[in-house]
Specification:
The chain contains seven helices and ten strands. By secondary structure, the protein is α+β, with helices and mostly antiparallel strands. β7 and β8 form a beta hairpin. Bound molecules: ligand MTE and molybdenum atom.
Length: about 240
């Protein structure tokens, strides 16, 4: 546990969630250290832990915005103009019943509200009241096949150089009861800056796992051919794939 926290704090010193640090990029020793510790972390901490849930009075009414810029392309502008009535979430890949969901179709799958703390590796936290659809309910609807191992979240924003943000969870993390496809923050529909219309909230893991602006959820057997092969935009830059808190 101490070791994982040390890794998290050394990462935040090097790069946080901001521009990629040359030090992290160029440092093979850091990469090797991360790669060797990660399986150990996963085994020691596991994903059965439950994140603390807070009271209404703990909610931070001004929830910080972080990460890449809100999408500003014509597709996103069109979704925004329709108040997301034209939004469809694609859920496909290694599933028996690939489907697309409007926001109201998603809401019919299930509902959960949880007040949890978001922890960014840059060293800030914020408590928010998140409502939406438990990801396990979405997975139940599409029925992952027996070869399914991971759930990949494809986002609408990019790093400014054209590489799209993405993230992934394994099926066990995806089926954690607190893993939420959030549609609302603090009793209001998600605003564009916090990932509207649909974002992930994984309160058991660091903030970069909680992908904003999700366009598509793809169930896969392997992460090897997705992005740079490390399971997420920041993972491809050297962050740990398993980011349990
Ligand atoms: N699509 C996308 N999701 C993202 C990011 C991003 O840049 N793009 N940044 C991540 C990071 S590092 C953090 S801390 C949180 C910030 O969420 P917030 O803006 O709602 O505070 O979003 C995460 N999800
Ligand atoms: Mo972050």
């Amino acid at each position: 546990m101490k070791r994982r926290l040390f890794i998290a704090s050394s990462l935040s010193a090097l790069a946080g969630c901001g521009p990629i640090s040359a030090a992290l990029n160029d440092n093979d020793a850091v990469r090797r250290a991360l790669a060797s510790v990660e399986p150990l972390n996963h085994r020691l901490i596991g994903t059965r832990g439950v994140a603390r849930e807070y009271a209404e009075s703990d909610v931070d009414r001004h929830f910080r915005v972080n990460g890449f810029a809100t999408p500003s392309d014509s597709h996103y502008a069109d979704l925004l103009a329709s108040k997301f009535a034209r939004y469809r979430l694609i859920v496909d890949g290694a599933v028996d019943r690939p489907q697309t969901f409007s926001l109201s179709a998603l809401e019919r799958l299930g509902a959960r509200t949880q007040i949890t703390r978001h922890d960014c590796v840059e060293g800030w936290s914020a408590i928010g009241k998140w409502s939406g659809v438990p990801l396990p309910d979405v997975l139940d609807a599409v029925r992952p096949r027996s070869d399914a191992r991971y759930v990949v979240f494809r986002c609408m924003d990019n790093d400014g150089a054209g590489t799209l943000y993405y993230e992934s969870l394994d099926l066990q993390q995806a089926r954690h009861p607190q893993t939420l496809l959030a549609l609302r923050l603090n009793d209001a529909p998600l605003d564009p800056e916090h990932g509207a219309p649909v974002r992930l909230r994984v309160p058991t893991q660091l903030g970069y796992k909680s992908a904003k602006w999700i366009a598509r959820i793809e169930v896969v057997g392997s992460l090897a051919n997705i992005g740079g092969g490390h399971g997420g935009y920041w993972e491809d830059q050297g962050y740990e794939w398993y980011a349990g808190i």
